[in-house]
Design goal:
- Chain A is built from 15 helices and eleven strands.
- Chain A has helices spanning 58-65, 77-82, 107-119, 125-144, 151-159, 174-178, 182-192, 208-218, 269-280, 286-294, 326-342, 347-364, 368-381, 390-395, 399-409, and strands spanning 17-20, 26-31, 37-44, 86-91, 96-103, 198-204, 242-248, 254-260, 298-305, 313-320, 415-422.
- In chain A, the strands form two sheets. Chain A has a six-stranded mixed beta sheet, with helices on both faces.
- In chain A, helix 9 crosses helix 15, helix 10 packs antiparallel against helix 11 (326-342) and helix 11 (326-342) crosses helix 15 (399-409).
- By secondary structure, chain B is an alpha+beta fold.
- Chain B folds into two domains: 25-222, Cytochrome Bc1 Complex, Chain A, domain 1 (2-Layer Sandwich); 247-426, Metalloenzyme, LuxS/M16 peptidase-like (Cytochrome Bc1 Complex, Chain A, domain 1), CATH 3.30.830.10.
- In chain B, the strands form two sheets. A six-stranded mixed beta sheet of chain B has the order 1-2-6-3-5-4, with helices on both faces. In chain B, strands 7-11-8-10-9 form a five-stranded mixed beta sheet, sandwiched between helices.
- The chains are: A alpha+beta, B alpha+beta.
- Chains A and B meet through helix 2, strand 5, helix 3, helix 4 and helix 10 of A and helix 2, strand 5, helix 4, helix 10 and strand 10 of B.
Chain lengths: 424, 427
Amino acid sequence: MVVCFKLIFVVLMIQFEKFQLANGLKVLVHQDTSTPMAVVNVLYNIGAKDENPAQTGFAHLFEHLMFGGSVNIPVYDEPLQRAGGENNAYTTNDLTNYYCQIPAENIETAFWLESDRMLSLAFSEKSLEVQRKVVCEEFKEHYINKPYGDAWHKMRALAYTNHPYRWMTIGAELSHVENAKIQDVKDFFFKFYRPNNAILVVTGNTTTEQVKALAEKWFGPIPAGEPYHRSLPQEPVQEKKRSLEVHADVPMDMLMMTWHMGGRFDAGYHETDLITEVLGGGASARLYEQLIKVKQLFSSIDCYHFGTVDPGLLVIEGKLVKGVSMAVAEQAVLEEVEKIKNELLPQKEVQKVINKTESIICFEDMSIMNRAHSLAFYELLGDANMMNQELEKYQAVTPERIQATANAIFQDQNRNTLYYYSKN
Amino acid sequence: MALDRIKAPLIKDAVDFDIQLKPYQHFTLDNGVEVYSYEGGAEEVMMMDLVFFAGNCYEEKNWVAAATNFLLKNGTHQKTAFELNDYFEFYGAYVNRTCYNETATINLHTLSKHFEALLPVVSELITESNFSEEELKIYQQNQLQRLTLNLKKSDFIANRLIDEYLFGIAHPYGTYSTEAAFKNLTREDLVQFYDRFYKHGKAVIFMAGKFPKNMQSLMNKYIGALPLNQKALPKYDHPIISAATKKYSIVNDASSVQGSIRMARRFPNRHHPDFPGTQVLNNVFGGFFGSRLMRNIREDKGYTYGIHSYLQNHVQECAWMISTDAGKDVCGATIEEVYKEMAILRNEKIDEAELKLVKNYMLGALLGDLDGPFQIMNRWKTYLLNDLDIAYFNKTIETVRAIQPADLQALANQYLQPEDFYELVVY
């Protein structure tokens, strides 16, 4: 089960056309005439992992600044709303994605707005000052003012010693964003927000011809930037299990374990995804049935991963039933993990998680918005057409391959454990 | 010729779009249960919403309706909870249940090709659920823990209390779960509620997507033969008792870095003639990202990550709510700014250009909201359960198109009076 940035796979073949502008901007078009709407999606190949360790949270801060006006257009939202459009954006550790949905007849408004902010932002001091505050409030709302809100900060820092996945998109600490200067912001923009570091996807009631003309007109004149060659510090293979104890004012104990897993390009990715479904996907999954229902050690338990591009983490986390000791709960989780390593999964159980995946694919593919996100994401990975091959890859997974992958991942020296104790 | 990037491209005004709510199809099962459906979409998927009149307004003891609804899927006389879930999940189907105030639902999302295999087991949930003591015990234990956790969150507490102030703790809209409510639940409570409001209850069904050819006969075979819609629903009478005190400040956690602010007033339901116009006013005020509250309090002052206002989605009576989490030291200033924005709406006519933007935004968003069979059916479901028809849809659109600054000012003077608002901060 992938969370946060849910990857979208497609059962119907999603047809698209692709071309590139002289400045390096890649453009993909998927036509669907059954809708009156269009989606214009711009993905920038810049995520929190590309940040300077002393200036974390910048990719996400930018997501906010991108709505603070561009060089020729003082306010981004108003013209879009006037044209009947809506927009939003998200930042992950791997990428930043901006999208608007608009009545197809007004599609040019989206090209005008998106191209102007790719050309240059307004870089107003006022916008920076306000958005710094807004992001700090976001930080407080989600990570300080919530019980267990700091768990992932601590887990990332524990599990990663070198790779920049060790900080969250919101930033490693508030001060990095609080201290952001306008010159830092400009440098970041002109390094990463260039046409040759972006992918434009248009879906909905449009034609390739129309998109070609509009893309040339609005994005064509934007100069290319220096190519960005990503070379991130890699995470060394973990050789010893690590753990951390936290004591906080929370109502119940929580156990969180992670194991390093492969990235999107590694063999075993699809097997790992299905392992998280077997363990944590729904009320018939193994952890739910055994640990919540049969043994009644946990009041909630989940197993998931983030679908990251670089090698990521497989996570099991749960809240303990009051009175259950951490050691007993941990042992019970490890027993389930051992089972999946030692016993071949029944064919029917593998079929179940493949069927579930097929269903997820079909449902997520219903909207032109999701199709735009997937096309952009798979193009970032190297080829948008990979989205049309995902189901086949899942269908090829066998019980033997799942067992082999489980044995590779679930090694004790590969594990990081956060024992989050209630002080009460 | 140089490209003019200052001037916006020409647009078609959304007020000029032809926005239609496509009609539903309708048939009646042998037992009298009405089925409303909308067939369409490119993917081979479908959804079915079984709506029972089994919300918390029918319960005589706190939380019985919600617990019954939740445990529907936790075992029948033939199958354990695990076997039921395993069955549904093997087909990649999602069976969810949700309890509201008037109604409670069982919702199925599935690939169309599996509908025939799934429907008999969905039907089993309505006739054969057994509510074992063991399942109830696990539910109570886990819900109690969840409640303990939620009571640490200022936003959770604020949401509960504001509803209590508006409607009263004895009203279905104002009540909430407590430790005692969970502990006092008995198997007998659930079995009785189930027998009266599901097994022999009143239902209405909504379906959308791609249907198998024999959908109607399957529905009749597995749902149409059940003893539904045979008995009139009991009448209930829950008077609304609003709190006398209007302003509250509560410290839930002394170390909190934010306060959860809720401001709300009572507001009539969708049948009131002011409802559609007030939806426009609400959008100007705090209903979308470009609203005045958002521009002032987030985008100008940076007091919060977000601030929203909305009209609640109730059948009997609604409330107009303003909701935000703001920095601890700026909660007072945030509330002051909300009142200032109310005053501006009362005292000054909204600018024509701003109103046009809001109208276009609302209609463009509506066009997007009606895109797809599930969305169309969901809109119809809301209307039908609120006793509304296509005339309401058309009137809403007409109101958005035609409403004038003077109308909005009059509405603001009627409904945005500070003395009508409850005001709550939970730290």
